[in-house]
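>> received
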Amino acid sequence: LSMTIESPPLVCYGPAKESSGALLSGLLHLTVEAEEQKFDSFILTLTQNILKKRAVYGHSGCNECARTTETLNTWRFFTSPVPLTKGVHTYPFSFLFPGHLPATTDNCLARISYTLSASATTTEGDEINFNQPIKLSRAILPGPDKHSIRIFPPTNLSASIDLPSVVHPGGDFNFDIRLDGVLNRQKNTRWRLRKTSWRVEEHSRTISDVCPHRATKVPETVIEHEDVRIIGSGEMKRGWKHDFDTADGKFEVTVDANIPTYAEASCKLEPSNGVSVNHVLIVEMIVAEEYASGAYQRGGATPTGSARVLRMQFHLTVTSRSGLGISWDEEAPPMYEDVPVAPPEYGRVVEGE
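>> returned
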């Protein structure tokens, strides 16, 4: 047995509630080496496999507690004895993945995978099996940048940040921060930016439940597990711009951030079958207060001994790259402008002329 996948990489575009899904198509090849061989059945099955790596109360040895398998579709090419001659016999198949299905995921708490399993049984009882893993991705199309404002009472400081709508694992992204309200002319003081640090956290959650056989042996049948890990971080101690000539002063910072490939970050996963993945961007800015001269020039500044840590948190959408960004239902069929609408007319031939 062998398989050829004819469709492009499976990508569900848009959120789970809006996606039209992904179309899978391929060919399954059955090679017969004998002159003639009879087969009783030939079946292809597409399954969704979910593995909870942290089962309830350590019952990791129970497959029913940790594993969930759902059959999405079954192709029965023939179920009665069929003789096949020597050679390669090809059977086409296709399936539309619904848009709400979760993407292929593998992290420290759970693994979601899809598998095509083929099984051919001969009349002599010999069984031939073939398994092909299928990767399903989800891509959120980029949109306008997100603008957020944070204030930090009791000071007059406020931060404005522009974030990209989506970021990608193994890719770079930039975001801009503007810190206003750094001058206090009444007290003749100003805030000086000393350091800017950032990190991207991945929050994974799973809900583990027990199988009916173990439900009576544990006091709680449902446990929620959560794991937090850092998939990208960095800091800046210089390189920003400041302007003390405006009414309240400002700092402008451009941060070059990234999610490295070796972090093996998972994409955003909406809650499905008790598994979810979200990402958070945390930005911390350390500012120190100092006395300024009357002209607010660079020289003559004396520290007041006061400092603050400005901490901000933003939701980040980590998703696969969208490529061309065209789903299967939006692809236009080819246009053949050179082909006439109707076949050409036949000429009339009259004998004797």
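>> The chain has two domains: 2-139, 146-316.
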